[in-house]
Amino acid sequence: MAPVSSVPTLPHLRARALDIVRRGPRTVLWTEPRLGLGNFLYHWLQVSKLRETGGSAVALRSGEMDPWLPYFPEIERDYTVARDEVRISDRRQPGFFQGWGIHYWPEHVERFVDFALRQTTLPVRPDPDAEQVVVNVRRGDYFEPEFARRYAFDHEAYLHVALERTSRLGAPVRRIHVVSDDIAWCRTALAWLGDDAEVTFAADAPTPADDFATLASARRLILTNSTFGYWAAHLSNGLYGDNHQHVVVPWFHDRAVWSGASYHLNPAWTVVRDIPGGWDVPSSSRG
Q1: Where are the alpha helices (DSSP H) in the chain?
Q2: How many Cβ atoms from other residues are within 10 Å of residue 154's Cβ?
Q3: Is the pTM of this model over 0.85?
């Protein structure tokens, strides 16, 4: 009699059967719930990369993805499938596909960005104001108890360093425009931005699409640790072609992965590696 531990269970047998069946030519990138635009764009980039090498790939459409798809009509039509369109023979591939130099290379980003810019209905247009910097401050769930210990850091300390860095990279900073998922906090905590420049803030209730278009249209960007911002920067780089060093980003992304280091960053961007007090969780966000 075989040991109990070696007797296949029903779930194991089902998994083996599915593994045999799911060996068709098409791969479905299995989109996790509760994701946002930045995450979706990495999935769509991976679809593009797999197709370049002769593979057949699509991304699973999710409810969170639906509001964004009208802004990318060719992606909606050709790069995604609804759950009821997944074939029994499709290979399922979970993951996030976000590692620069791991899941994709510069040429993959450049070709996909060109494709995205050609089709998008978002109002992404070059900004002629060379003395304006657009700042993206990601707060929202990053500063809630569930996520703060992973993602929160001292935005004020970082922005002091990032502004000094961007001032040395090109034209003077005469105007600063702030885009955020917590504009009320920015108006209060970042009022000091107006000490040396004219500062404006996005509307109190902007749509995410408005914010993304504003960021992607900017020549000069200061970002926090957000894939939403990273992808706006990729589109900005595709729009201008020569502004990579004018994208200023933090070294830090997530304490749970790679000892905190962001694995998403284009090496051509300007990376802030150190800030006063370090990248620790702000005391007000420790919960």
Answers
A1: 10-21, 37-52, 73-78, 106-119, 148-151, 155-169, 183-189, 208-217, 227-240
A2: 19
A3: yes
